[in-house]
């Protein structure tokens, strides 16, 4: 897989590779999908959701560049795999909260995190709302579902100097906030399940 490429020690890419080596995707999949854990494919986890393919997760995490001590929000946490990876990236001293709209997936993700023994949690998303403003601001926000446009609510939950990575209409958007200003960059073409909320603006 692409995450086996040579990377510079200490770089964001190297830290992501280390996290992905430490957190086994198999432990976050339904039993019927576990034999495909090493395949670079999105895998169904039920309720219309998928566990994203490893190469896509790798790119997103590199772009996010979460660092030790960061406070991170994981939107669309699904099986909890990305939440656990983020917990590895922000240790020591960081904090990660995942939000998921499907109650059965919240339960699945919470159980998976307990098994992974990482400092992170998953909460039930509030229908009609994006993110988790009660724990804001966040240094990093990762969204693993496709939005129609960059959700304003998530930009408002970013700390000054914070970064948001979100799929928007087939492209990964990286947004950096500096005070009241925000700059965006776009990367590649990717496919995700839709971001589910009453409004993603």
From TrEMBL:
GO terms for molecular function: protein-L-isoaspartate (D-aspartate) O-methyltransferase activity. Keywords: Cytoplasm, Methyltransferase, S-adenosyl-L-methionine, Transferase. It is found in: Cytoplasm. GO terms for cellular component: cytoplasm. Coiled coil: none annotated. Its EC number is 2.1.1.77. GO terms for biological process: methylation. It is an enzyme of class 2 (transferase). Its main location: cytoplasm. Belongs to the methyltransferase superfamily. L-isoaspartyl/D-aspartyl protein methyltransferase family. This is Protein-L-isoaspartate O-methyltransferase. The lineage of its organism: Bacteria, Bacillati, Actinomycetota, Actinomycetes, Micrococcales.
């Amino acid at each position: 897989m692409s995450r086996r490429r040579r990377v510079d020690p200490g770089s964001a890419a190297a830290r992501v590779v280390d996290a992905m080596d430490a957190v086994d995707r198999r432990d976050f999949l339904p039993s019927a999908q576990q034999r495909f854990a090493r395949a670079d494919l999105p895998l169904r986890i039920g309720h219309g959701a998928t566990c994203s393919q490893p190469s896509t997760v790798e790119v997103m995490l590199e772009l996010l560049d979460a660092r030790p001590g960061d406070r991170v929000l994981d939107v669309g946490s699904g099986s909890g795999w990305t939440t656990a990876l983020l917990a590895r990236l922000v240790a020591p001293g960081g904090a990660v909260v995942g939000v998921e709209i499907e109650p059965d997936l919240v339960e699945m993700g919470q159980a998976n995190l307990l098994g992974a023994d990482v400092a992170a949690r998953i909460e039930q998303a509030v229908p009609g709302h994006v993110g988790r403003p009660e724990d804001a601001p966040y240094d990093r926000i990762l969204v693993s579902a496709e939005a129609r446009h960059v959700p304003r609510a998530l930009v408002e939950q970013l700390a000054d100097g914070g970064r948001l990575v979100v799929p928007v209409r087939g492209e990964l958007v990286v947004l950096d906030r500096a005070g009241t200003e925000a700059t965006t960059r776009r990367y590649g073409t990717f496919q995700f399940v839709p971001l589910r909320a009453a409004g993603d603006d």
